[in-house]
Amino acid sequence: MSKPKSPPKQAANESRAVLKMVRISPRKLNLVAQSIRGLTAEKAVNELTFSRKRIAHDVLKCLQSAIANAENNHSLDIDSLVVAEAHVGKNLVMKRTSVRARGRAVRIEKPFSQLTIVMRDISALEQEAA
Questions:
Q1: By C-alpha distance, which of 27, 41, 19 is closest to 116?
Q2: Which residues of the chain have pLDDT under 50?
Q3: CB-based contacts of 60: which residues, under 8 Å, 6+ apart?
């Protein structure tokens, strides 16, 4: 006897992509994630393409992966996709030391982050409302 199949992690009208081990602090990454929350797929791509933040290029790759997952894995329409969630989490922290005066050392922490982007198809929601 095997275990019963676990339920899917997202709804049928959702797709997601996860970017792990990003070498930036979660606080800085959240600034970029905030700029795309709630936008349509096309507007979010434009926002990240012309952003001046260094990490925007990596976030754009994750967003394009979420869009591709929606199209290929769930057969969703790209034109009706919205960034439903873009949340940032902490990952591991590299600890390094820096030599200081009088034989002392100071700890330098280099944080890593994790980004999850969830795309949702809103065409089905609009049809139910109408």
A1: 19
A2: none
A3: 45, 48, 49
Q: What's the whole-model pTM score?
A: 0.88
Residue 113 and residue 29 in contact, taking contact as beta carbons nearer than 8 Å: yes
Buried b (16+ CB within 10 A) or exposed e, 18-31: ebeebebbbeebbe
Q: Quote the CA–CA distance of 82 and 107 in Å, as a whole number.
A: 42
pLDDT at residue 128 in the model: 65
So what's the pLDDT on residue 11?
87
Domain with 65 in it? 14-122
CATH of the domain at 118: 3.90.470.10
80 vs 41: CA distance, rounded Å? 8
Give the number of domains in the chain: 1
Does residue 37 sit within a domain?
Answer: yes
The β-bridge relationship of strands 14-22 and 81-99 is: unpaired
